[in-house]
Amino acid sequence: MLIGIPREIKNNEKRIGMTPAGVRELVQHGHGVLVERDGGAAIGFTDAQYVEAGAEIVASAQDVFARSELVIKVKEPQPGECGMLRPGQILFTYLHLAPDPQQASLLLQSGATCIAYETVTSDSGGLPLLAPMSEVAGRMSIQAGAHHLELSRGGLGVLLGGVPGVEPAKVLVIGGGVVGVNAARMAAGLGADVTLLDRSLDRLREIDVQFDGRLRTVYSTSDAIERYALEADLVVGAVLIPGAAAPRLISRELVARMKKGAVLVDVAIDQGGCFATSRPTTHDDPTFTVDDVVHYCVANMPGGVARTSTISLTNATLPYALQLANRGVAGALDHDPHLRNGLNVHAGAVTHAAVAESLGYPFTEPLSALSASRGRAALVS
């Protein structure tokens, strides 16, 4: 199979869909790889390294999309990239379609097969291709929050861990998944007073044991969110419903009652955000203020540490990319039900139930969509 890796074009996005080491693995399995010129240059992956790994360097994204059977990216395709997709082509990347009806419409029009990293599942019930970036984003959320608590950034002027004789900042983490646990670990490690909310008692028990009393675990209710948000200096929104829009857990009214100079970091912004006042921001202009509360809502947080993120993401995606390349999309999705859960759009149909519900499209069961497209192809031939 011929695999294409274009340069990312989202604001300040310097990650790339595959490292040279990943490319070498694909080539060793008999596949061709096209890499757009200077696609990884900003993070130290040179064209020469990709050539040494067996890739062909091409001049433009148009070349990548026109020639590739499988396109591997990091971020959701921008409108111009959606216009370069074609029927039968496979797109493998983060999509986050629930809050993005324009992208969904363009992907449906393209006729392409679009597999979203964030809805691929595992035997343990996890999201293995979301987890690496969730780990990064969770840890970065505390770095960003601590920075924007500084007075010069609009914050309270509070040091996260305090100093002897001065109490530490109060940090509220909403959500006990991968993002939340990594955020809590960073905050506790810096000496903050950390409270973590979740709606699973089993998960709260696991986290309580894991942290051995270094943070407070509380069952998440509206009362608990209100109480701890009003006390907090920093709130991290870390909730996720796979494929669906994030629930709005902090209202505009509650934001208005929070401490002036408190900081909200919305890691769920890719899925629409979990604070009523959230809207996507960029690394160029990462924050805005509502009612004197600082909001950090960067939609591609891991792009800020793009080299670390690219290596971590490739480690996770490479086995699935090899499945798609070795078996073809129908064979790979027939074989692996967890990869099949990643199928969001196929041949003009929405094939993920949560995405369909969020956007108001009819849901087509993935195997039915694949079978129907195979039938159409047979009639044409």
SSE order, one letter for each helix or strand: EHEHEHEHEHEHEHEHEHEHEEEHHEEHH
Just give the CATH class of the largest domain.
Alpha Beta
Helical proportion, percent range: 25-40%
Total of domains: 2
What is the name of the CATH topology of the largest domain? Rossmann fold
User: Going by CATH, what is the homologous superfamily of the largest domain?
Assistant: NAD(P)-binding Rossmann-like Domain
Structure, explained:
The chain has 2 domains: 2-126 and 306-380, NAD(P)-binding Rossmann-like Domain (Rossmann fold); 131-304, Rossmann fold, CATH 3.40.50. The chain is an alpha/beta fold. It contains 14 helices and 15 strands. Helices cover 39% and strands 16% of the residues. Helix 6 (131-148) packs across helix 7 (178-189).
Q: Which features does this protein show?
A:
seven-stranded mixed beta sheet; globular; Rossmann fold; 14 helices; 15 strands; 381 residues
In short:
This protein has 381 residues and is an alpha/beta fold. The protein is built from 14 helices and 15 strands.
Draw up the topology in text.
Layout: E1 2-5, H1 20-28, E2 32-36, H2 47-53, E3 56-58, H3 61-67, E4 70-72, H4 79-82, E5 90-93, H5 101-110, E6 113-116, H6 131-148, E7 170-174, H7 178-189, E8 193-198, H8 201-211, E9 216-219, H9 222-231, E10 234-237, H10 252-257, E11 263-266, E12 287-290, E13 293-296, H11 306-335, H12 337-340, E14 343-346, E15 349-350, H13 353-359, H14 366-380
Parallel strand pairs: 1-2, 1-4, 2-3, 4-5, 5-6, 7-8, 7-10, 8-9, 10-11, 11-13
Antiparallel strand pairs: 6-14, 12-13, 14-15
Helix pairs in contact: 1-2, 6-7
